[in-house]
Structure formats: C-alpha cells, structure tokens
Design goal:
By secondary structure, this protein is of the alpha/beta class. The chain contains eight helices and nine strands. The strands form two sheets. It has a seven-stranded mixed β-sheet with strand order 1-8-7-2-5-3-4, sandwiched between helices. Strands 6-9 form a two-stranded parallel sheet.
C-alpha cells in the first residue's frame, strides 16, 4: 500500500516534469522473480526505473537511511521504505556484500523484482565500470532468476555535483532481453564463474547504454580521482605560497634599494 502511494506521489510528478522515455518494457516479465541489473549514474536512478514499471522493484540502501534518530530520520526511513528500498547493514565480517545477497535472495524467493547496481556505486564520470561479482552473480546463481540488463541514460546530467536545482531534461531507460545463467547452476562459489556471469551482464549493459567501459572498479576510480584532485590542490597551494614568498622577497629588496 505504502509503495503504491509513494509511487503515485513521486512517480507522477517525475513523469510530468522529466517525461522519461523507455525502451524494452516487454522484456520485464508480468510475474515471477527477475533481477534488474543496471548501470548507476545518479541517485535518481532508483526512482526513475520503478516509476516506469508496473511491477514493484526492490533495491537495497544503506542501513543508516533507516536508523537516523529524530523527526528527519523517521521521515527519511519512511520515504525509503515507501519507495521499495531495503536496509543493508554494512557492519560485520563481510559487510554490505553478504547483506545484499541475503536481501536479494529473499526478494526473489517471494517472486518479486530485485534491482541491483553491479558497479557497486555511482559512476564518478559517466563511464561504465567493472562489475563486482559478489552480489549480482551469487544472487542469480543461488535463485536461478533471469538477469535483465538495464541502461539508465543521461540521469547524471539532471543534477550533477554542485547543482542545487535539477535540470529539466528527458532521461531514458533501455531494458535488454533476460539473460539465463542456469548453465552455471550449483557453481555460485566458483569465482571464475562469478566473474564470467558479471562480465556478460556488464557487456550487455554497455551495449544498451553506449557508455565507454573501464576495466577497473568504480570505487578505485573514485579514490584515484580524489587523490588526483588533492594533489592538484596541494600543488596549487604550494605554487601560491612560492609566489607570495617571491613577492615578499621582491618587496624587501625594493625597500632596501630605496
């Protein structure tokens, strides 16, 4: 009930304001379990995709969104529950990976749709990064559910970092044909199989999205980008300090000459 209410409250305005287009809706089964494996460009991906589907899609979200105290925390928790997000506790020996797998299996065993972002985090620059094999592949092989590749298009342009108000433009969604990995049944602990399954899904997402593919994890890329930005800032500060020092020395020399 709450999901339907929130979908109308959020999805209606999203459709009217942004008019998202979608291709491949016929690839979503009318019933039964399926995994929607999508690229991840923006926070809004988890809203635009469910908005355009008739069936409920359950994604996972940080447990912190559900446990923050106070009125704001309760409202945030109600919002995420209402839009079909499940809390994932990132503590423990293996953290979010095991929690995501368990949550996904439970959703699929209920015959529902489970949404997952194989990259594990949002792309830092609009490119498609290497998929993490631990979540997507293990859930797919443990349940036998088909994997449906999904490409979000241009959602990162709606509200890029630093922009307060979203830009009114048309994002898109391309939904590919279901992928069957039943040939790997019982091999969900084989790391080579997990890698192969994940890479096959990422290849299909790449074809749908048209993104440039980068064979490193997005988390690594984010760290490298942050380190490069820090190094550039430190170099600029050092340059400014040197210029200030030189200016001071020049001023002292001029004063001595006077």
């Amino acid at each position: 009930m709450l999901y339907g209410t929130m979908k109308v409250a959020i999805g209606g305005p999203l459709k009217l304001a942004f008019r998202p287009w979608v291709e491949g809706l016929e690839n979503i089964p009318d019933e039964g379990p399926a995994i929607l494996a999508s690229n991840h460009l923006s926070f809004s991906d988890s809203f635009f995709l469910p908005t355009m589907l008739d069936r409920k899609v359950t994604f996972i979200a940080k447990a912190e969104y559900f446990t923050t105290p106070g009125v704001k925390g309760r409202l945030t928790a109600a919002f995420f529950k209402g839009v079909g997000q499940l809390p994932v506790d990132r503590s423990g020996a293996r953290g979010a990976g095991e929690a995501a797998i368990k949550s996904g299996i439970e959703v699929l065993r209920r015959g529902e749709l489970f949404g997952i972002y194989p990259e594990g985090t949002r792309s830092p620059d609009g490119r498609l990064y290497r998929g993490k094999p631990g979540g997507l592949a293990r859930v797919a092989l443990a349940t036998g559910a088909p994997v449906i590749p999904v490409a979000m298009i241009d959602t990162e342009k709606i509200q890029p970092p630093g922009r307060v108000m979203p830009k009114l433009m048309r994002p898109g969604i391309r939904i590919g044909k279901p992928l069957d990995f039943s040939r790997y049944h019982g091999m969900d602990q084989d790391r080579f199989v997990l890698r192969a399954v994940t890479d096959e899904v990422m290849y299909e997402i790449m074809k749908l999205s048209g993104q440039e593919y980068v064979d490193v994890y997005a988390t690594v890329a984010k760290r490298q980008i942050a380190e490069a930005a820090k190094a550039a800032k430190e170099a600029e500060q050092a340059k400014e300090a040197e210029q200030a020092k030189e200016a001071g020395q020049a001023g002292q020399a001029h004063g001595t000459e006077g």
